Amino acid sequence: MGKGTSFNDYLITRLQDPEIACHFISQAIEENDSDYLKIALGDIIKAHKVSYISEKTGIGRQTIYKMFSKNGNPTHKNLVAILDVLGLELTVKPKMVKA
C-alpha cells in the first residue's frame, strides 16, 4: 500500500482482482458467518461500482444494496448473475474429512 493511500482505497483496488475477491469470499464462507459473507460480497460489488453491476446484470441498484444489507437475502439467480459480472462462479467440492 503506497504512502498516503487509505486502507479503504487499497482494499477497493485489490477487490477488483477476481483472485483476491475469490479469497475474500472463501474466507467469509469458511467463517460460516452469513453476515460476514454479505459484507464481503457487498464490498466486492462496491469495488466494482454498484451502477456497473446493475447495468451488466439488469438488477436495480437499490435491489443490489438491499440484497447485501443486514436483512438481505439474494436469490441464487441474482447471486450467480452478479458473480458472473465479477468474474467469479459458484462451485461445490467434497468436504474435507478430518483424520
Helical content class = 55-70%
Q: Extract low-pLDDT stretches.
A: none
Number of helices: 6
Largest sheet: none
Instruction: Find the structural class using helix and strand composition.
Output: mainly alpha
Structure summary:
The chain has about 100 residues and is mainly alpha-helical. It has helices spanning about 5-15, 20-30, 35-45, 50-55, 60-65, 75-85. The protein has one domain (about 5-85).
Structure, explained:
With 99 residues, the chain is an all-alpha fold. It has one domain. The chain contains six helices and no strands. Helix 1 packs across helix 3. The longest helix is centred in the middle third of the chain and has 14 residues, at 34-47. The model has no long low-confidence stretch (mean pLDDT 90).
Keywords:
99 residues, 6 helices, 62% helix
Per-chain topology:
Blueprint: H1 7-15, H2 18-30, H3 34-47, H4 50-57, H5 61-67, H6 76-85
